[in-house]
Specification:
Blueprint: H1 14-33, E1 38-39, E2 42-43, H2 51-54, H3 60-76, H4 81-110, H5 119-125, H6 143-161, H7 168-186, H8 189-194, H9 200-213, H10 219-238, H11 240-247, H12 253-270, H13 280-296, H14 299-308, H15 314-353, H16 362-378
Antiparallel strand pairs: 1-2
Length: 384
Amino acid sequence: MPEVNEQPGPTRVPILDLLRLAAVGAVILYHYGFWGPASHGVQQVAMPYLAPVAQYGFLGVPVFFAISGFVIAYSAEGRTPVGFAIARFSRIYPTFVICMTLTFLATLLVGHAWFHVTWGQWLANLFIAAPMFGQPYMDDAYWSLVIEVVFYVWVALFLAWGIFPRRIDTIIVAWIAITFVNELTLDIPMFEKLFMADDSGFFAVGLLIYEHYRGRRDTRLYSLLTLAMGTATFQAVHKLERLGVHTHGSFDPMVVTAICIVSLGIVFAATRIKSVPLPAGLVSAVGGITYPLYLLHLQLGYVILLAMTPTPDALSTALVLTAVVVLAWFVWRFLEAPAHGLVRDKLTLLASRHGWPSRIRAREARVDRDRITASVEAGQIANH
């Protein structure tokens, strides 16, 4: 799922905003050309003739995970576990509630002929992981948000234990080891969910790319990055059997392998590009709309599409997707920032009342920043 780099400054990577849009575009292609939401037990696909290409759009989600690994590593710097948790929660939750509620209301009002929703489902979805409460996701795309939240929880715990990012190499080796043990031998569903065993390699790639971005250059880093990319590719191919059963599709493992390697290579290369020849406002808007666009495009998009015509074509689909993009822009431009600020300020105030610092002290932050800068200049950052 899409993420937005929160802290503007010299460490911002503008081209990642463009990559987020490309990734969400791949997911939209997948959902409109190969596998949409089910209506009365029948899968809805607006443009099935795109299936041979669109079926590989599912890889847009793990690319989001790789970008998320990079962004979260940056977001965690200079923050306490409480501060990190506040920043993440206030970033994703208000927008999620807004988009989930819009999807619910639209389905309730005009989509009842194709999709069934209840107030109980809406209430369960307020907790994001709705299936834990016996209710389906309001939108099938929400499953990836649960994985993101699990990743955030692990990072917050590592911060609390004082091992992130100081012991990042150990964390990644242990994580990949658990992944392979579970995927190849144990196959315990709880382990799969707890340790994100289907997607850990993509997050690990993002974390290691950030290590490289901040100046680290050593053999261990490149070895771990190669291992993480191999793990990510293995996980993507390993999913194909279950995905084929679920979607009745036929996927070429070599195509999936090539897409994974090229996509992750592009993410890595993007962090070396400091600017793009586009207006800053446009780039910011592109990055800003990707999260609400991801949350709105599937269920809400199909509700509008089927209300327009029971037999979608390219024109009606293009019109609906344009409308969803405009709605995503409206959410980002007018609703997201006030909601984000309100939740962040309330949580920060609550934390301060209980004596929980949300940031490290200014002097500590300055000393840490100076030490990193000095190490970069010496070319000696190795496992900070």
